[in-house]
Predict the structure.
Amino acid sequence: MKWIEPLDMTVLQTDSQVADPEIPGRALIDDEIQYLQIAKRVADGVGYQREPGGKPTAVRVPGYPLYVAALFKALGPGVTVALFGNVLLISLLPALAFALAKPVFGYKTAVVASYFCAFNPGLYYLGLSRAYSEPLFAVLLCCGTAMWQRKDRSRRPANAFAAGALYGAASLTRTGYFGLPVLLTLAEAGWPKRKWRWNAIALGLAFLLVISMWGFRNWIVMGTPMLSSTNDGVTLLGTVLAAERGRGDWLNPEDVAPRYAEIQRLPNEIESSRTAMQTALGELRHISPTTLFKVAAKRLLRFWIPLNRIVSDELSLKANIAANLLYFPLIPLAAVGLWRARHSASIIPLLSPCLYATLLAAISWGGTRFRYGLEPILAVFGAYGLVQIAQRFGIFSGPHFATAARDEDGIAVRRPTGVDILDRPA
């Protein structure tokens, strides 16, 4: 068995912080360092790079840095400005949850879903405490899903084309989602053949057009048509190093051993990423299938178990418990809603991103942050689960509801006989 190097606890740390005098506010933390420094250079007209007069970079995909750069250009640079941009994005999520729920489950479930999303503490602790890309990714993913739901409303595949463009933009905000359009088209291969073909073509074409712009930029500026980021190699290496030690999280390679730190310090980003990937694949060969299976199970638990870390580490244990008491019911209710709607083909556009993200979590690492883009979708299924439970126990009984009837799943529900504010037609 291969000997595993112990962690160097003298350099291991939870957060890296940098005080940038050109970006007012508190010190930049972890991913903020690269995001906001790139955004500042773009806003200044210097180019997509981290330092004035420095080399062009592709260490981050461009979605979030360009969004923050637009805010810096309009309002001036600062951490507070970037966080304000996240506030704007988070404020859209309840409306997007409503838009996702209404075509599938009706008005009542859509209203409950928007409330679930509005009072979800998992959306606020990360989006408002760190200038990270998750809120923008969630908005783009949900908008793409909403357009994909509506692909059959027009004879022309305009909605499918819009969905592909939005999914492409989401893939340029968080890496790893290149396979989502493939899963979406395969999941709905049972459509009438002509309509399926044109929708699939429109989705794939728009997706490729959007991500190819980033690849073309990298080809011209950096000499390689790279569609992702030069940070992918380090991400993969950290994932493999954690798996080697039976961990379900991620390890910063430079905190593990000096030889991995040397890879990250290579002056050429592309060479550094390639070397990190080759090293990761070499380390992966020494991990037994049993260990990989156990690590994948741990990562799936980290991804889906409600009682994951919710609030930031600086806050108290009581704050974590309080947030989890509010958040805990959502995933069990979402499981109930998914089970009740399991025979409906209309849930496929909602279910496909969840399945794809689950696959990513199993092979990389997961947690509340990486589930962020799915929270509005979970709110939809959670709302449907709550409505189904409420109807089962007659909570929605009243003068506007007639005697019990059976829905398509054979569950007793009450049918509205009058006009109720929560039962407008979908």
